[in-house]
Design a protein that fits this description.
By secondary structure, the protein is an alpha+beta fold. The chain contains 2 helices and 7 strands.
Length: 168
């Protein structure tokens, strides 16, 4: 026994399948953009960690010797003391680009900090720890907000942070 389809019933199953495919596609698109956001936030957290490791290592090197390193390798094995000092455990790559960090150098060629060359917009633009924030100051420089890492130091009346000219 075969059942005959009425006129209005033809293609209803196909229509339901097409609607299900559209809903599945929209869900996958939303999940994909959420995943991209999660990955970028994770990379930014890793960028902050790695940059802070460089900032602390450069500060320790400067506090120990009163000078800044000329090469990053000096942070790995500093043989100026009686025993080898390790200011940095290893050289880190920029997690945003997969390349080495760009170096911030002063006029003498010594390393003052590192920064990321990633041109994307960061999620994190404020809420940094107090050692990174300079209240009442405007940062003018070459990298995006929260992308440069180095110790603070004064240059006369203005303040320079990681190669950025900061004016009051």
């Amino acid at each position: 026994m075969t059942r005959r389809l009425k006129r209005g019933e033809r293609g209803s199953t196909l229509l339901m399948v097409l609607v299900a495919i559209v809903i599945l596609g929209l869900s996958a698109g939303i999940a994909g953009s959420s995943w991209r956001t999660i990955v970028q936030r994770d990379r930014e957290a890793e960028l902050f960690f790695r940059g802070d490791q460089y900032r602390q290592a450069i500060a320790r090197f400067h506090n120990a010797w009163g000078i800044y390193p000329k090469r990053l390798e000096e942070l790995l094995e500093d043989r100026r003391a009686l025993y080898v000092q390790r200011h940095l455990r290893r050289l880190y790559l920029d997690p945003m680009t997969g390349e080495p960090f760009e170096l911030v150098r002063d006029s003498a060629g010594t390393i003052r900090g590192v920064y990321s060359t990633d041109g994307g917009e960061p999620f994190r633009r404020d809420g940094f720890p107090s050692e990174y924030e300079l209240p009442g100051l405007e940062v003018r420089g070459r990298a995006g907000a929260g992308r440069g890492f180095c110790p603070k130091w004064n240059t006369g009346g203005s303040v320079e942070v990681c190669g950025f000219l900061v004016e009051r």
